[in-house]
Amino acid sequence: MMPEPILDIQDLRTVFRIGGRDIAAVSDLELSIAPGETVALVGESGSGKSVTSLSVMGLLPKKVGRIASGTIRFRGKSGVTNDLAQMDGESLRRIRGNDIGMVFQEPMTSLNPVYTVGEQIAEPIRIHLGRSHKQAAEDAVKLLADVGIPDPARRARQYPHELSGGMRQRATIAMALACDPALLIADEPTTALDVTIQAQILELLAKVQAERGMAMLFVTHNLGVVAEIADRVAVMYAGRIVETGPVDQVFAHPRHPYTKGLLRSVPRLGEATALKRAGTPLPTIAGSVPSLANLPQGCSFAPRCPYAIDACAVAVPALVDAGEGQLSRCIRWQEL
Amino acid sequence: MTTFITRRLAIGLVMLLALSVLVFILLRLAPGDPIDAYVNPTSPLSPEAMQALRERLGLDAPLPVQYFGWLRTAITGDLGYSIQRVGVPVLPLVMERIGPTLLLMAAGLIIAIVVGVAGGIISAVRRNSPTDIGFSVVAFIGISSPAFLTALLGLYFFSVQLRWAPSGGMLTPGMGFSMSDLLAHLILPACLLSIGHAALIMRYMRASLLEVLNQDYVRTARAKGVREFFVIVKHAVRNALLPVITLIGSTIGIAVGGAIFIESVFNWPGMGLLLVNAVETRDYPVIMGATLVIGACVIVVNLLTDITYAAVDPRIQVA
């Protein structure tokens, strides 16, 4: 029996008002994360993965984006479960940075250039935990030490431009962890970093998660990163989850043609030379992602899918149980 | 920091020197001289007598001789004597006028900064709302109105018609000094002086804040649960102010021009009025002295702007 999830999203539909018309960036989204679990949300740009995390945070662009329907049940540190989709702005603000921490993609631009690193980490501690300036500043130094920054007292007094990219990302992680959140949302936290630094940041995230027993929603487009950090993975395509399941299971036996295509197009060590010798290019998925404003009838992936049949264009396939904890939104999953 | 200030002051001295050459040449290129202006047209002097006067004042000497003669005494701090007010030394004359001008300009600038920054923030936060559009229209009218027009219209409406404020001067004659009297005289010219600047600052502040509000660190602040008010005031405005500070620094020189108009209209006993009188009477030493003192003030204010900039933005190293 799975423990009661920390985050349980049901039937989420998030729309953007563009040119007088509501365009769904996320539809029929179901996702749950258990305490201490890491779930990776994978997809291409525009697949809706970042919109999903912004919907949870209540940070959709004002006036343009809104949650049209669905529930986002979240159990905070106090043990009380609330539906984030129904909460007003002020209640969401009390949850942000407190029960849910968030790490963003660009460490270069996600820190405010005119405040010291220490001040920026201390800020949520003062806001949510009501500590004094002095206490919060001391806590910030401890957090910097926790995320592996040497000489934390000196670094806390420095400004973001005095830190390297990797160190800034450590600082934003410290900021997200400041109030000991129940859930950490990491939106492409390693994408902007050098490969060697990526590995360090992944290691750090895994370490702090294990130490704190925190749940983590890890948004990325990098399948290699998913394999490294996540317990479960949800693959998104054109605003919908097309396949979800335990990482090992999904990687070994993809039950959706899109996942299969994605996995095939990841180059493996030595494979590139072999392919070159054989004269075949690296496999890709034919075609391109459809516009969200103009999705095809039925399965959004059908026009690019080598397995597509007439039945695919009739209706959007439901997420069906494919065994071993895997769910697939493909009507022909058994044949894959 | 000390090196920076010393270097800037040295550059400032060179600029003052260049300014003195420029003003000197421009004055001599203008038709007429102090003697023409001095002589009463109803009882004309003979050309010989005028020539004798020119010789006595050294106005017939070659220009370089005149300039270096002026410069030699100016370096010692002696800016010479007024030609029209016989026997009155220039330096004390200018120094007693600098106070009122600085007061008027400082008051105008403070009003412009407060109104401009606040208006810009409101406009940016309520982007495209009726408030924003209203502010924008007012700002464009403010930017496009020349100082002499706003000064005269302001004088007419607020002093003559509504009688809210005195129509001129700095203090009521015959009354002792009182702060309230000074403020009553100051408020209208200062407000009118601030209009153009407030409008310009408002536009810059709006544009700058709109750009900053799209920055990642503003989203980070929201993700931390910072109250929206502090997201704007603490995280966004301080960053948005940086280009506005540059703007304020660079428009102070222009503000001098506005102040001269306002001083003439409101009979404010400042540098502007002195300068206008001096230009009308071709009083060369006074014009030179007044422009140099104004130039020095602008240079010092620009230096202060750069220091402020460094204080607001930690990425700027003053060295």
Bin the strand percentage of chain B: under 5%
> What is the number of independent domains of chain B?
2
Shape of chain B: globular
Terminal Cα separation of chain A, in Å? 29 Å
The oligomeric state is heterodimer
Instruction: Please give the alpha-carbon distance between the first and last residues of chain B.
Output: 5 Å
What fraction, in percent, of the residue positions of chain A are helical?
25-40%
H/E element string of chain A? EEEHEEHEHHHHEHEHEEHHHEE
What's the total helix number of chain B?
12
CATH superfamily (homologous) name of the largest domain in chain A: P-loop containing nucleotide triphosphate hydrolases
Q: Strand tally of chain B, please?
A: 0
Can you walk through the features of this model?
The complex is a heterodimer of chains A (336) and B (319). Chain A is an alpha/beta fold and 336 residues long. Chain A has two domains: 7-230, P-loop containing nucleotide triphosphate hydrolases (Rossmann fold, 3-Layer(aba) Sandwich); 242-335, no CATH class. Chain A has eleven helices and twelve strands. Chain A has an eight-stranded mixed sheet, sandwiched between helices. The longest helix of chain A has 18 residues, at 195-212. The mean pLDDT of chain A is 90. Chain B folds into two domains: 2-75, no CATH class; 91-312, MetI-like (MetI-like fold), CATH 1.10.3720. In chain B, α6 packs across α8 (179-213), α7 (147-161) crosses α8 and α7 (147-161) crosses α10. Chain B is an all-alpha fold and 319 residues long. The model of chain B has no long low-confidence stretch (mean pLDDT 85). Classes of the chains: A alpha/beta (336), B mainly alpha (319). Chain A binds chain B through residues 57, 59, 89, 93-98, 102, 104, 106, 109-115, 123-124, 127-128, 159, 161, 172, 175-176, 178, and chain B through 215-217, 219-228, 235, 238-239, 312-315.
